[in-house]
């Protein structure tokens, strides 16, 4: 897979627009994250090195851009058109990471959504949109999502979309200052021959 064929890309569904994260998004992104600090804190990745920390915004974007250039990540912002706005507002972030080509053709997906927009179908629609893109446009075979067992809203997302529960992973990732257990969910392209987005949108209309 040639790098230029997978990134940058923008995906749209109704009022939702998933687009590449940019340096100039810093002010708006920081405001959204600050407003959601308590909401997101229990699920935040942390650095197990006592002397270490997480990158600031500029370093985060630079790292994500490097990964995208290497065809190992797709760093999206989730944005939403609203009445009166000149451009879609940031309502979350979704990153496809750890993309492996060759005989694996797989990736991992992670996301967060503004608490004020939670429960409106933004997360499952975004996950379905990106997973379909990865399966159909990029030819990936498997998508994986790892979720804390206590994270009810994220568990509902994978349940709605039909991701298969592959079991428990003790102390899988360093989250909010400690090694945390996760449940692993996955789908392969053969399991969703019609894609995820169409059936998900149909279920919302029924």
Report on the structure:
The structure is a single chain. The chain has 206 residues and is α+β, with helices and mostly antiparallel strands. The chain has helices at residues 26-35, 37-40, 57-69, 122-136, 152-161, 197-205; strands at residues 11-13, 16-20, 74-80, 89-100, 106-113, 142-147, 164-175, 178-188. An 8-stranded mixed β-sheet has the order 1-2-3-4-5-6-8-7, with helices on both faces. Helix 4 (122-136) packs across helix 5 (152-161).
Poorly predicted runs of 5 or more residues:
none
CATH homologous superfamily designation: Gcn5-related N-acetyltransferase (GNAT)
Order of strands in the sheet with most strands:
1-2-3-4-5-6-8-7
Structural shape = globular
Q: How many separate domains make up the residues? A: 1
The helix content, as a percent range, equals: 25-40%
Tell me the CATH architecture. Answer: 3-Layer(aba) Sandwich
Number of strands: 8
Distance between the termini: 39 Å
Give the count of helical stretches: 6
- What is the percentage of strand-forming residues? 25-35%
Order of helices and strands: EEHHHEEEHEHEEH
- Main sheet makeup: 8 strands, mixed
- Structural class, from secondary structure content? alpha+beta
CATH topology, by name, is Aminopeptidase
CATH class: Alpha Beta
GO molecular function: protein-N-terminal-alanine acetyltransferase activity
Organism: Pseudarthrobacter niigatensis
Keywords: Acyltransferase, Transferase
Protein name: Ribosomal-protein-alanine N-acetyltransferase
